[in-house]
Amino acid sequence: MFETTIAGSLPKPFWLAETNVLWPKWRASGAELEAAKRDATLLWLKAQEDAGLDIVSDGEQSRQHFVHGFLEFVEGIDRDHKVRMGIRNNRYDAMVPKVVGKLRLMGRAHPEAKYARAHTKKKLKFTLPGPMTIADTIADEFYGDRVKMAMAFADLLNQEARAIEADGVDVIQFDEPAFNAFTKEAGAWGIEGLHRAIDGLKCTTAVHICYGYGIKQNIDWKKSLGGEWRQYEEFFPALAKSKIKQVSLECHHSRVPPDLMKLLAGKDVLVGVIDVASDQVETPEEVAGTIGKALEFVPKERLYPCTNCGMAPMERGIALKKLAALTAGAAIARQRYK
After folding, report:
1. What is the signed CA dihedral for 261, 234, 205, 1, rounded to 10 degrees?
2. From 49's CA, which of 15, 115, 126, 170 has a CA 20 to 30 Å away?
3. Which tens digits make up the pLDDT trace of 219-257?
4. In a domain, 93, yes or no
5. Dihedrals φ, ψ of 247, to 5°?
6. b/e string for 109-144 if b means 16 or more Cβ within 10 A?
7. DSSP code at position 189
8. Residues 278-298: what's their mean pLDDT?
9. Across residues 6-21, what is the average pLDDT?
10. How many structural domains compose the chain?
11. Cα distance between residue 279 and residue 40, in whole Å
12. What does the pLDDT look like over 48-96, one tens digit per residue?
């Protein structure tokens, strides 16, 4: 009961990359960089095991960015002539690469999944960007239709996900923060994209939908959403009918009405009990309390305590303390609600 996990990303050690930034520069290159990525993966696998997490992640240590870490291995993209584009319904203004030809994978995108599997006996989760979020993070100069381009990416994600499953990964999660920015499109075609991405998979599948990292653009956006954040309400009913097995969402310190979780009847719910937008470390009692509130709407056998989002920009020591609070709080909840 209450198997603990994280949304996916963890801070990169100072010797691997810049710290406390969302898109860090690597400290090395070539063979030295690849060795450092593997060392950082081992470090975080051990740290998660030591913290007592039940389902661990590679921490996305081999990726600079959760979307572009996948796109690096996709053919048909012009990375040299970027264009300015609004992302997440113009929440971010960014210079992005362009899709200029038919999309193809250039071999394996994430061989680190096999490496992580070889170095932990715990259940292992691996994360990939979702089709809608990719389509919202890159400019289209080939397909002429955002949905068509997203489905092309979904097919590539499926190709990589099948290889990751063959590596022995237990859970494959697709990150779709764009769902909260385009709530109608999420139900209209976003879930269809997920279905194409998970086609044929037998492992546990998940989708992570949050309100973003604790960076200024997200914090400012959250302030504009009013007293209640009800974006989930528009597409959770469709997700409940989908083939996805798990839904990861934001809860602790958010303004999401907890009763929206009841819209996910029949799904495992990864409840965010750790706030990644604050350096204040939750107490185990706070974590247990958030679990208790979620239990009003989620059956205990379907509740997985999790982080609200990834921890990539967070200071490493704070992340470690938050992992410890997560598992300690879940232990309290197991005794309290058994």
Report:
1. 0
2. 15
3. 777 778 888 989 999 999 999 999 999 999 999 999 999
4. no
5. -125, 125
6. bbebbbbbbeebeeebbbbbbbbbbbbbbbbbebbe
7. I
8. 97
9. 95
10. 1
11. 22
12. 999 999 999 999 999 999 999 999 999 999 999 999 988 787 777 889 9
Q: Please state, in angstroms and rounded to a whole number, the distance separating the CA atoms of residues 188 and 182.
A: 10
In-domain check, residue 272: yes
CATH code for position 167 = 3.20.20.210
Cα(334)–Cα(90) distance, rounded to whole angstroms?
A: 42
C-alpha distances (whole Å) from 272 to each of 25, 254, 268 are 29, 9, 13
Q: What percent of the chain has pLDDT over 90?
A: 89
Q: Tell me, what DSSP letter sits at residue 282?
A: P
CA 259 from chain centre, in angstroms, equals 22
User: What is the domain range of residue 237?
Assistant: 30-73+110-336
CA 300 to chain centre: 23
Spell out the residues 6+ positions from residue 134 whose beta carbon is closer than 8 angstroms to its own.
67, 70, 71, 150, 153
Is there a domain that residue 258 lies in? Answer: yes
Tokens of 60: 């996305």
Q: Is 8 within a domain?
A: no
